[in-house]
Amino acid sequence: MNLTVKVNMLFLGLFVLVNTSLSIDISKNGANVEMSSDYCEKGKVKQFGGLDCYISGPSYSKTAIILITDVFGFAPSHSREIADKVAAAGYYTVLPDFFRGDPYVRGKPFAPWIKKHAPEKGIKDAIPIIKALKARGITKIGVAGFCWGGKVAADLSKHPYVEATVLLHPTSTTTEDIRGDKVPISILGGELDDLCKPELVKEFENILKSKPEVDSFVKIFPGVAHGWTLRYNNTEFAIKKAEESHSDMLHWFDMHLRH
């Protein structure tokens, strides 16, 4: 593991520690706060590609989206709500449990957990899911990675595994990852993100501008902190920014998977 990844892991650990120690809204913009929800799930958990996956969307679809979550896993309500939103747009949507029933639990030591579940290992579990999608007749696949999942999505994008990628406040993702990207990629960052700083997102953007053969879109959302797309509360501002990011994500997939 190189120095950049180690530094990113340190910041990720600090982020989890802060969130664990506070039970109230830690930011005015509503990001980084997981709220309880009475959301009614539209999909089901099934075995797929060797992992438990929350699956939603039309079974007849020829296009699929893999959503890769943060360290808290595939069970929290917003993760599945987003999966259902993607599914409602017509995509066969797969939200895998990359942690095999062992997501990070607030209050527990982070270092041993992340050592066991380093995002660099995620691509090994993602490939069988991609193979399973193709075996059922899927012709085009997109991947979206949130926080921890951003690194996995970036690694997949270095190979012809997927046709389009979206990274949302990705941690552990490096400039070398972006240089290696070979598919259309969108990167959504936050102005107040301490884990995927806007300066780093700008570096990503500059690298992508030097690669005109790869379509790209980079956006930094004002006034939002890390996790705003996935772990948001019910304030008007938080919901608006989260929904804007989801809309941008879907627009990117529509552009590159349906044309």
TrEMBL record:
<dbReference type="InterPro" id="IPR029058">
    <property type="entry name" value="AB_hydrolase_fold"/>
</dbReference>
<dbReference type="InterPro" id="IPR002925">
    <property type="entry name" value="Dienelactn_hydro"/>
</dbReference>
<feature type="domain" description="Dienelactone hydrolase">
    <location>
        <begin position="52"/>
        <end position="256"/>
    </location>
</feature>
<dbReference type="GO" id="GO:0016787">
    <property type="term" value="F:hydrolase activity"/>
</dbReference>
<dbReference type="Pfam" id="PF01738">
    <property type="entry name" value="DLH"/>
</dbReference>
<keyword id="KW-0732">Signal</keyword>
<feature type="signal peptide">
    <location>
        <begin position="1"/>
        <end position="23"/>
    </location>
</feature>
<protein>
    <recommendedName>
        <fullName>Dienelactone hydrolase domain-containing protein</fullName>
    </recommendedName>
</protein>
